[in-house]
Amino acid sequence: MTVTTVPTLITQLHAVLDLTNTEIQVAETRVAQARTEAVRRELTENAENGRLRAEAIERAIRDLGGVPEIVGPLFGRLAAALKAMAEQAQPFDEALLGDLALEHQLLDRARYVKALATAAGKQDVVRLADRLVTAHAATVDWLTTVLAEEALGGPAALRRTPFQAATGATIRLINVPVSWSARGIDRALDTARTTPPMLSALLGRGAHAGDVAVKTLAASRDAALETAEQVTRNEGADGIADAIHSARAAGGVLEADELPIADYDDLNVSQAVAAVKELTDPSDVRIVVAYEEAHKDRQGVVSAAQTRLAGIAQEVSGIGN
């Protein structure tokens, strides 16, 4: 046993404990952003598992002759609260990248703890470190998947807060001052569904051909979008019409016969889930989720769609390869 390694090991366990307390509070904060009940349960379970890991780390510190810091959980709550406040001024993807950075630090420190424990001959701590590595590696993969879902246009397992949605939309408006792609309007409409007052700005900026903006803004939201698509297509502005169609899809206001799954309204939950599992295009999954949430809102179908998109996102990210 390397005696000089033990103080370093205790120091690193203290650092991991502080970060774990922050992780617990972050997981609890994210529960409110869960898109489905399944994700909500998973995040709640993650927070509880984090508490169990924190208790195990505290025991390890005591067994090594150290004293766990009493203010650790308080520090974690404070750090998570400050993080949550800062995120309100960030786009959604930046908030997720912050979560991912936290998990990477936990993962790297857990691996370092394992090396220190091995050098010190502390097999109980080696086993604890293995447990931490497994947990944080899984969370890194999950967050990477959520980021990929966001990059593919969603729906991501986590929803943006209204502040994050507004911030993200503002940044996109600045970065795309002239033309709107179909994917850009997809993302903006997701923002508009979260913060409805922003829809007027979206339509005013997106439908700039002739009197289309006047006609659409004079009607209700759903009718305005449908009218805008028809008018622009009749006038030969197919690019704008396709973008508006994509916006209608993101808002869940397509007609049933426009969905990528035939006779969708006639399908029960089991049939709809089976059909969703066959989809291969992220935009098709997004269209079905938007329509489902706007109409029947069957959680089993939404969860199946979320799982399907997660699978596509993992393929894109190379997770599991």
Characterize the largest beta sheet: strand count, sense, and whether it forms a barrel. Answer: none
Average pLDDT number = 75
Percent of residues in beta strands: under 5%
Low-confidence stretches: 163-185, 191-199, 206-210, 212-219
> How large is the count of helical segments?
14
**What is the rounded Rg?**
24 Å
- Class by helix and strand content? mainly alpha
Number of strands: 0
**Silhouette:** elongated
Pattern of helices and strands:
HHHHHHHHHHHHHH
Terminal Cα separation, in Å? 38 Å
Helix content: over 70%
Overall description:
- By secondary structure, the chain is mainly alpha-helical.
- Helix content is 74%, strand content 0%.
- The chain has helices spanning 5-31, 37-63, 72-87, 92-120, 123-151, 162-175, 182-194, 199-206, 212-218, 221-234, 238-250, 269-277, 282-294, 299-317.
- Helix 1 (5-31) packs antiparallel against helix 4.
Keywords:
321 residues; 74% helix; 14 helices; mainly alpha
List the helices and strands and how they pair.
Blueprint: H1 5-31, H2 37-63, H3 72-87, H4 92-120, H5 123-151, H6 162-175, H7 182-194, H8 199-206, H9 212-218, H10 221-234, H11 238-250, H12 269-277, H13 282-294, H14 299-317
Helix pairs in contact: 1-2, 1-3, 1-4, 2-5, 4-5, 5-14, 6-7, 7-11, 8-9, 9-10, 10-11, 12-14, 13-14
